[in-house]
Structures are given as C-alpha cells and as structure tokens.
Write a structure and sequence with these properties.
By secondary structure, the protein is α/β, with parallel strands linked by helices. The protein has two domains: 61 residues, no CATH class; 114 residues, TIM Barrel. Helix content is 41%, strand content 13%. It contains eight helices and eight strands; from the N terminus they run αββαβαβααβαβαββα. The two termini are 29 Å apart. 37% of the residues are buried.
Length: 238
C-alpha cells in the first residue's frame, strides 16, 4: 500500500525536479513497480533522493501493515489503530495519514464521544465514579477497563449499567475478555454495548480472535511499528 505520495510530490516541486506518477495514496503497489518518475539536473536529483524515499518508504510500510490487519480481521470485527497519538508530534500527522491510507480507523467510535481511560478511572476512584463524572456530558462513552479497582467482570457490568457504549478490555488477556463477555451476557447487557479488546496485540493474533465475542480490536503498535516498505531510487540516463 502506498502512503506519502502526495507529500513526496510537493517536496519534489520544492526541490526543483518534476514528479510524475500514475499511482495514488491508499493504492496498491507491486514488487518492482515504478512508483514515480523524476526529471531534473544531477544536483537536484541527488537532493530529491535524500528527501523523497523517506517520505514514501516508512509511510507506505505503515499503510501496508494497516491493510494487512484489515485483511486478517476479514470483516469479522472492527480494527482500529490508536497508537498514532503516541508518536512524536513532528510525524504524528504522517503516521495518522498512513494508517488511514491502509484503511484502518483510529478511534473506537465516531465523534463526538467521551473516552474514559485508565488514568481517569484511577483518579476518580473506580469505573462507577468515572461514569458518574462524565454522565452530564450526555455523549457516548468508550471506557478502558483493566480490572485494577475491581475484577474486570464487575467493571464491565458497572460500566454497562451506567450507559457506556463501548467497553474496551485493555489487558491483552483472553481470560479477561471472556470474563467480561460472560458477565455481560448473564445480566442481559451484552447487546447494549460494544465489547472491544486491546493490549499489545500483534498482527498474527488477529485470526485467532475471529471466533471470540468481540466487536472491535485496537491493534496499536504493530501497525505504526511496521517496517519500511522496501523502495529504491534509481538514476537512469535520458
């Protein structure tokens, strides 16, 4: 998958070389395929080599990782990648674009919504207190559950009873996911919420999650840490 092509074209124009490509961001690319052709003087061609590969290779690697995650899920659950927000500010926008070019969403729910993470739960003293604090906002709530204040099943029940829209079991432990699922179904609350799973998951974990009781998975670092897509810059005499 390609990402960074638009930015590369902009940099090429600033560098003083012409840039031509029939491809686009978010499109597929095959091994050995020409991504773009540049024309310019030797000085500017060498400058372009220093700049453009960096714009394309890493971003395209992330986009490819995102698409692979999507393919491995096979449409059986939503896959999101929230780890872009942990990237350095200077590249955060590029990483976010690359994830999007690969076809992944970056949020568990469409805006507007309230995200209650583990630190809010800790600060406010528990899931119940955290849900009470955000209730006046009257927006869908996505809450991160880690079983730190109570057993994870009890946290899931508390959040569901207080109207949370999405419960994210963020421990990476399948036993915790099952405990939350069983508790919610026992109390007839499962159909009222979306159940998500996260916690240092890897791409190779996705197929095994297909038969489990989940609506969404946050794949996180496995996508943003994807290796560069191999690319090379070859000079050809006209």
């Amino acid at each position: 998958m390609l990402s960074g092509l638009t930015r590369a074209a902009e940099l090429a124009a600033q560098t003083g070389v012409s840039f031509a490509s029939s491809l686009s961001d978010g499109g597929e690319v095959s091994a050995g395929q020409v991504v773009a052709s540049l024309t310019g003087t030797p000085f500017y061609i060498i400058r372009a080599e220093e700049l453009l590969l960096g714009e394309l290779s890493k971003a395209s690697g992330i986009a490819t990782g995102a698409r692979r995650a999507l393919d491995l899920a096979g449409g059986r659950f939503l896959v999101v990648c929230g780890a872009f927000k942990k990237m350095p500010h200077v590249i955060k926008g590029q990483v976010r674009q690359a994830v999007a070019h690969g076809g992944l969403r970056m949020r568990m729910a469409p805006h507007p919504f309230v995200y209650v993470d583990k630190n809010y739960v800790r600060i406010l003293g528990g899931v119940t207190q955290a849900m009470e604090a955000v209730a006046p906002l009257q927006m869908p709530v996505v809450i991160q559950l880690r079983g730190e204040m109570e057993p994870i099943a009890q946290e899931a029940l508390a959040a569901a009873r207080m109207g949370a829209a999405t419960l994210m079991v963020d421990t990476g432990n399948l036993d915790d996911l099952e405990a939350a699922s069983v508790a919610l179904r026992r109390e007839n609350l499962r159909e009222k919420v979306k159940l998500a799973f996260a916690g240092n998951l890897r791409l190779r974990d996705l197929p095994a999650l297909a038969g489990l009781d989940i609506d969404a998975v946050d794949i996180g670092y496995s996508v943003v840490d994807a290796p560069c897509l191999p690319m090379r810059f070859d000079v050809i005499q006209a």
